[in-house]
Design goal:
This protein has helices at residues 2-23, 33-77, 85-89, 98-102. By secondary structure, it is mainly α. The protein has one domain.
C-alpha cells in the first residue's frame, strides 16, 4: 500500500514540475503548492489501493465459487475431472487448487 501512495505522491509532484516547466516559470516561486499536488497524488494512490483490494477480493470469491461449482459437478457426474490438463497445471482464477489435486480428487481421468 505504501509504495502506491509514495509513487502517486511523487507523480503529483512531477506534474507540478512539468506544469511550471511548460509555463517557463521558476520552480520555487510558490513552494506552498507542492504539498497540495503531493497530497492529491497520495490520495489517488490510496484510492487505487482500495480499488485493487476490492478487485482481488472479488476475483478470489469468483475463483472459489467456480472451483466449488466444478467440484460439485465432478461429484455429481462421478468423473473426478475438475478441469482440463492446462487448468490442473496452472495457477490463477480458473486453475484447480493444488490441495484438491493432492487429495486424489480430480486427477487425470483420461478425458479433458
Amino acid at each position: 500500500m505504501v509504495h502506491k501512495v509514495m509513487f502517486w505522491s511523487g507523480f503529483g509532484l512531477a506534474v507540478r514540475f512539468w506544469q511550471l516547466g511548460i509555463e517557463m516559470r521558476p520552480f520555487f516561486s510558490q513552494p506552498w503548492a507542492y504539498p497540495i499536488y503531493g497530497c492529491i497524488g497520495a490520495s489517488f494512490g490510496y484510492y487505487l489501493t482500495g480499488v485493487d483490494n476490492n478487485q482481488m477480493r472479488y476475483l478470489k470469491e469468483t475463483r472459489d465459487r467456480l472451483i466449488d461449482k466444478r467440484r460439485r459437478r465432478a461429484e455429481r457426474e462421478g468423473t473426478g475431472n475438475i478441469g482440463t490438463e492446462f487448468q490442473r497445471d496452472q495457477e490463477g482464477l480458473f486453475a484447480s487448487p493444488k490441495a484438491m489435486l493432492g487429495k486424489g480428487e480430480g486427477g487425470p481421468s483420461g478425458t479433458a
